[in-house]
């Protein structure tokens, strides 16, 4: 499946909103999860093919010609217009996804597989806690929109500075805490965890969605489980990326990391 860029514009200095449309999305179907993502293929300069391509066949090519897969959340799907919105983080000159988004022009094509997902705010929770950085902001925004009406929802979101904040909406009773990392060189792994630890303790059954940078999500998980704020089965915790590693290097160690985190004592 592939989409053609209808528009690409900065949502914040760190996030580019890309809207895809066109005939390549004819069969796209969104499932029920709020955090659905597509696995996008970003092409290296040396690619001797163009979108659409046979994604099985290109696996046989030399590494420098193969596409780079990156998971990106479906921020929105407009069923009527059949347009798919992705918010993609840029990180300077680094990263196939970030660079592609920063330079995307109407008519550019992006091929992907999916969607898939794993979390929808469950109806039987008393309140919701949504935590992450820019990479998880699209999923957090989509989850905030999917909570039951009137239910308390607290979002704790790390961005570079005030310019990185975006308006979120929710049928729930939404409270957003923005955490700024600008000027911080140490302790980045604990920024979100400290902000979460400082929140008033929510009453009742909490459903938590903690996605984003690996060490940061791990630190938040520790706070939530050790303080008994969230039951383990009510916590969706996913390390999307790892500071200092590109996605290829991260995926090579991710399974071991996830096992290590799951085995961590929480009491
Ligand atoms: C299920 C899922 C959903 C995701 N949804 C989104 C989404 O909607 N939007 C989005 O932007 N990302 C999302 N991500 C994260 C994204 O897939 C990774 O951040 C990916 O590494 C970005 O690829 P890249 O080619 O830009 O950078 P890479 O080539 O992977 O990395 C280049 C360098 O940039 C650093 N880097 C990577 N991501 C970030 C970041 N966010 N901030 C700062 N530095 C970074 C790396 O550590 C590395 O040093 C999602 C990940 C998962 C698993």
How would you describe the overall organization of this protein?
The structure is a single chain. The protein has helices at residues 96-103, 137-145, 191-197, 214-226, 247-263, and strands at residues 2-12, 15-21, 37-42, 68-73, 76-78, 83-89, 109-116, 127-132, 152-159, 173-180, 206-213, 235-241. With 267 residues, it is of the alpha/beta class. It folds into two domains: 2-116, Beta Barrel (Elongation Factor Tu (Ef-tu), domain 3), CATH 2.40.30.10; 127-263, 3-Layer(aba) Sandwich (Rossmann fold), CATH 3.40.50. The strands form two sheets. A seven-stranded antiparallel sheet has the order 4-3-7-1-2-6-5. A five-stranded parallel sheet has the order 10-9-8-11-12, sandwiched between helices. A hairpin with a 2-residue loop joins β1 and β2. α3 (191-197) packs parallel to α4 (214-226). The chain is globular. It starts with a strand and ends with a helix. Bound molecules: flavin-adenine dinucleotide.
Distinct ligands, ions and cofactors found in the model: flavin-adenine dinucleotide
| Helical amount | 10-25%
Note the gap between the termini: 45 Å
Query: CATH H level of the largest domain: which superfamily?
Result: Nucleotide-binding domain of ferredoxin-NADP reductase (FNR) module
* Beta content: 25-35%
Radius of gyration: 19 Å
């Amino acid at each position: 499946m592939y989409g053609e860029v209808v528009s690409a514009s900065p949502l914040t200095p760190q996030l580019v909103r890309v809207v895809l449309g066109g005939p390549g999305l004819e069969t796209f179907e969104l499932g029920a999860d709020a955090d659905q993502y597509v696995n996008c293929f970003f092409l290296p300069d040396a690619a001797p093919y163009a979108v659409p391509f046979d994604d099985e066949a290109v696996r046989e090519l030399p590494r420098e010609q193969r596409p780079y897969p990156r998971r990106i959340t479906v921020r929105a799907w407009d069923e009527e217009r059949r347009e798919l919105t992705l918010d993609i983080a840029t990180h300077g000159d680094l990263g196939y996804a970030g660079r592609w988004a920063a330079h995307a022009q109407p008519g550019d094509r992006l091929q992907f597989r999916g969607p898939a997902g794993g979390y929808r705010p469950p109806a039987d929770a008393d309140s919701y806690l949504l935590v992450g950085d820019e990479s998880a902001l699209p999923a957090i925004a989509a989850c905030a929109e999917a909570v039951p009406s009137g239910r308390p929802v607290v979002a704790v979101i790390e961005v570079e500075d005030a310019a990185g904040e975006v308006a979120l909406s929710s049928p729930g009773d939404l409270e957003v805490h923005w955490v700024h990392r600008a000027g911080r060189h140490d302790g980045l792994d604990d920024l979100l965890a400290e902000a979460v630890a400082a929140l008033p303790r929510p009453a009742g059954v909490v459903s938590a969605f903690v996605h984003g940078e690996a060490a940061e999500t791990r630190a938040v998980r520790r706070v939530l489980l050790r303080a008994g704020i969230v039951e383990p089965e009510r916590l969706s915790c996913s390390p999307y990326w790892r500071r200092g590693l590109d996605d290829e290097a991260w995926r090579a160690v991710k399974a071991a990391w996830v096992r290590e985190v799951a085995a961590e004592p929480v009491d």
